Amino acid sequence: MAHQDSMRCSKNGGSAAATAAMLVRRYGDVLREIALLLGLAIAVLLLGQASLLRHAPYSPVFRYEAELRSVAAAIEHFQAECGVLPARLRDLTHTAAGPAACQHQSLAAPFRLRDAWGSAYHYAPAAGSFTLRSAGRDRVIFTADDIVLGDTAWSWRPLYRPPTDWLRLSQALATVLLAVLFVTKLLSLLWRGGMACGRSLLRQRLSS
């Protein structure tokens, strides 16, 4: 076996192809371990992707903000059709509400005028403009967790940060660990193969 390795190394000048052939012949078990580690890493990654598809990637607060904007869009539609802002949010749910000349269709279902916690949105028209806010999770208006239309500071967002997803975190750590093991095994295999080829060449030169 050593003589054959020496012949291969000398014939190919220690080329990468000769080293690879010798690695497959002499370290088949190690290569199988590497293939197994790579397969496990791929499986963990696929499981992680499935978890991402099952769970929303963002905090639910983005959905709450989107619902608030949809109500604001209905208010602006009312204003565009009727020339005035609705006096109260429930005007959005009635056909032909507002001035006599305004014959609009219902712009919002009643359930859309309440936030995710069942509280009515706080709406205040003033001088052709309006403010709109949700009382938030505590259901108390004008507190820190209020979700406010147009407030780009988004100071409420940290209060709605979802809890740590330990499943997804463990999958990420497992993937990193498997990748490290894979690279370590591969480098070890290449090192041993190169050393074996070098020793074969050295023995050949010493014997000649």
* Fraction of residues in H or I helices: 40-55%
Kindly name the structural category.
mainly alpha
Largest sheet: number of strands, sense, barrel closure: 3 strands, antiparallel
Query: What is the mean predicted local confidence, pLDDT?
Result: 74
Protein name: Type II secretion system protein GspG
Domain Type II secretion system protein GspG C-terminal: 65-140
InterPro entries: Pilin-like (IPR045584), T2SS_protein-GspG_C (IPR013545)
Organism: Tahibacter harae
Keywords, separated by commas or semicolons:
single chain; 208 residues; mainly alpha; 3-stranded antiparallel beta sheet; rod-shaped; disordered N terminus
Written description of the protein model:
With 208 residues, the chain is mainly alpha-helical. The chain has helices spanning 2-12, 16-26, 28-54, 61-82, 166-207; strands at 122-126, 129-134, 147-148. Strands 1-2-3 form a three-stranded antiparallel beta sheet, with helices on one face. Strand 1 and strand 2 (129-134) form a beta hairpin. Keywords: Membrane, Transmembrane, Transmembrane helix. Residues 65-140 form the Type II secretion system protein GspG C-terminal domain.
